[in-house]
Design goal:
The chain has 368 residues and is an alpha/beta fold. The chain is 38% helix and 14% strand. It folds into two domains: 230 residues, 3-Layer(aba) Sandwich (Aspartate Aminotransferase, domain 2); 120 residues, Aspartate Aminotransferase, domain 1. The protein has a seven-stranded mixed beta sheet with strand order 1-9-8-5-4-2-3, with helices on both faces. Strands 7-6-11 form a three-stranded antiparallel beta sheet, with no helix packed on it. The chain is globular. The chain starts with 7 loop residues before the first helix and ends with a helix. The mean pLDDT is 97. Bound molecules: pyridoxal-5'-phosphate (PLP).
């Protein structure tokens, strides 16, 4: 049996008619840049996330870039974040003229450890940027409290967490700005790149709206130098169709996760993902901590089971960030996670026989 980590064609087959109809409507109207289709999808995402404002942009990476610029990051000011995340979190920080400052992760949640944040806050710190990794929110209460104490902005990198919750509050609604990605492998994925910025603050919504169109609120008049970073109307129309299915897909992911949790509970050598108190985990990834991880991954590959490593190298060890001056060993939990984590198929299109085969294959590897 072959079980891919993610097979986007299955979801596409079930939505093909509806999505093609929506895209055709945009093309027929020739309403290609911003306009009513983008606006209505923005309204839907805002409602879904429990915020008054959501502004589409070209990608999740750009959403971070614009968010940091809107909060005034400049001149190498410091943005405190995790070294255990997708590259874009820190890459966009540098492109926003900020400097990433890393804080190690909590080994249970894989998210930034709030207890270590205050140690790195300096005069030059401007923003705290937790990442809701794998679809589970970071502990936002202590993070927001630290930000308030020091007068800092908070950006939630919620690229993997649309619809995740921390004590009843949705991802992206707890800081100043939350950023989402519609990259095809996210829980709500487009037919290409797309992103969104959510905020409760009207002033930031206005600034973000300007930044995505060259820094001008009025056409041809510019308050600042911004970007050309818009969500395509074609993507917005397709994503509106898909958003209606998101809660059912999340339920499917949660059911697969519960199935794995039970099936691996007695396997020596495996740790299943923990869901923190008050969290709604949406499982963009289902991530095991595994003894002999690389051997397991090779074994799964030989037996037709797809898997992924998110992420194999911590950001402080990336060549392009060596000039930040961090040393190997400085973020031991992040480095250990990079050696031990393995993502297995959890998408809602997974069939029962497929997930049973995933379990059987992994149990066989450990002789369980
Ligand atoms: C996917 C992702 C991004 C970037 O999103 P793009 O839409 O691919 O630019 C940023 N941060 C995290 C944590 C992500 O998973």
């Amino acid at each position: 049996m072959q079980v891919p980590l993610l097979d986007l064609k299955r979801q596409w087959q079930s939505l093909r008619e509806d999505v093609l109809a929506a895209i055709t409507e945009v093309a027929d109207a020739q309403a290609c840049i911003l306009g009513p289709y983008v606006k209505s999808f923005e309204t839907e995402v805002a409602a879904y996330s429990g915020v008054p404002h959501a502004i589409g942009c070209a990608s999740g990476t750009d959403a971070i870039l614009l968010a940091l610029r809107a909060l005034g990051v400049a001149d190498g000011e410091e943005v405190v974040t995790t070294p255990y995340t997708f590259f874009a979190t820190a890459g966009a920080t540098v492109n926003a003229r900020g400097r990433p400052v890393f804080v190690d992760i909590d080994p249970v949640s894989f998210n930034i450890d709030p207890a270590q944040i205050e140690d790195v806050v300096t005069e030059r710190t401007r923003v705290l940027m937790p990442v809701h990794l794998y679809g589970q929110c970071a502990d936002m209460d202590p993070i927001v409290a630290i930000a308030e104490r020091h007068g800092l902005g908070v950006v939630e990198d919620a690229a993997q967490a649309l619809g995740a919750e921390d004590n009843g509050r949705r991802a992206g609604s707890m800081g100043d700005i939350g950023t989402f990605s519609f990259y095809p492998s996210k829980n709500l994925g487009g037919l290409g790149d797309g992103g969104m910025m959510a905020t409760t603050r009207a002033d930031l919504a206005e600034r973000l709206t300007g930044l995505r169109t060259h820094g001008g609120m009025k056409r041809y008049y510019h308050q600042e130098v911004g970007f050309n970073s818009r969500l395509d109307a074609l993507q917005a129309a397709a994503l509106s169709v898909k958003l209606r299915h998101l809660d059912a897909w999340t339920e499917g992911r949660q059911q697969n996760a519960a199935f794995y949790d039970a099936a691996f509970a007695d396997v020596d050598g495996l740790t299943t993902p923990a869901v923190g108190a008050g969290k709604r985990h949406i499982y963009n990834q289902y991530v095991l901590r595994a003894d002999r991880r690389d051997e397991l991954r090779a074994y799964l590959g030989e037996h037709g089971v797809g898997s992924g490593i998110y992420y194999p190298l911590s950001l402080h060890e990336q060549t392009c960030f060596l000039d930040l001056g961090y040393k190997q060993g400085q973020f031991p939990e992040s480095e250990r996670a990079a050696r031990e984590t393995l993502s297995i198929p959890v998408n809602p299109d997974l069939r029962d026989d497929e997930r049973a085969y995933v379990v059987e294959t992994i149990r066989a590897f450990y002789g369980a």
